[in-house]
């Protein structure tokens, strides 16, 4: 059983949902990433989504775009990020790590080379924003051969045929984009999320995480009532823009507040 499966099994037994924070690797500089990953775990992160910076992050809003620009200014590469995860694994052998980004860096490295190196470093999953299931069959086979879970996006507009295609390929969990637009958008409608998740669960046996539009403990708690996991990205990355001083502590405190709200008993 993979680390991702173990995490969801443990949480389900405890009647809890996964908290999945996102940060961009190499932001604010490459030397900080590993310690910030540990800070997220200290706050209660169950899975970490580690962003791979890319020059054309078309699905990301301005906050994460700026994070990618800061990382790329330091020359951060996919190979360096794999090394960061290997360093993280020296002190944490349990927390799943999912790389999230775009197809180009992985294509440039080669899927076989990437999967082999990622597996050796302790990476558990890959979420490729711009890789549709129709084009992913051969790539998914390579990832699964090395024990890397391929994670796909689903959306409000995802038709049943696409959901079924994702169900056949995905592993670990799937990521439901809760609203139209880019990361950091607002106007989260939890009722509409609940309706769509009920539909998707007809086709998707895996846990479903919800991201986009979750900005605080209250919205995370609301989403946790209907989803298997809560993904928070832009709000966390905003902490980076307040400066590096005290950043690790701020991340731990924010994640801990969200975790506490998600775990609080419901009336």
TrEMBL record:
Pfam families assigned to the protein according to its UniProt record, in alphabetical order: Trp_syntA (PF00290)
A GO CC annotation given for this chain: cytosol
Coiled-coil intervals: none
The keyword Amino-acid biosynthesis is assigned to this record: yes
Presence of keyword Lyase: yes
Sorted UniProt keywords: Amino-acid biosynthesis, Aromatic amino acid biosynthesis, Lyase, Tryptophan biosynthesis
Record EC number: 4.2.1.20
Active site: 49 (proton acceptor), 60 (proton acceptor)
EC main group: lyase
GO molecular function: tryptophan synthase activity
Pathway: Amino-acid biosynthesis; L-tryptophan biosynthesis; L-tryptophan from chorismate: step 5/5
InterPro entries on file: Aldolase_TIM, RibuloseP-bd_barrel, Trp_synthase_suA
Domain of life assignment: Bacteria
CDD domains: Tryptophan_synthase_alpha
Catalysed conversion reaction: (1S,2R)-1-C-(indol-3-yl)glycerol 3-phosphate + L-serine = D-glyceraldehyde 3-phosphate + L-tryptophan + H2O
Functional description taken from the UniProt entry: The alpha subunit is responsible for the aldol cleavage of indoleglycerol phosphate to indole and glyceraldehyde 3-phosphate.
NCBIfam families: trpA
HAMAP family, per database record: Trp_synth_alpha
Subunit (UniProt): Tetramer of two alpha and two beta chains.
Family from the record: Belongs to the TrpA family.
UniProt name for this protein: Tryptophan synthase alpha chain
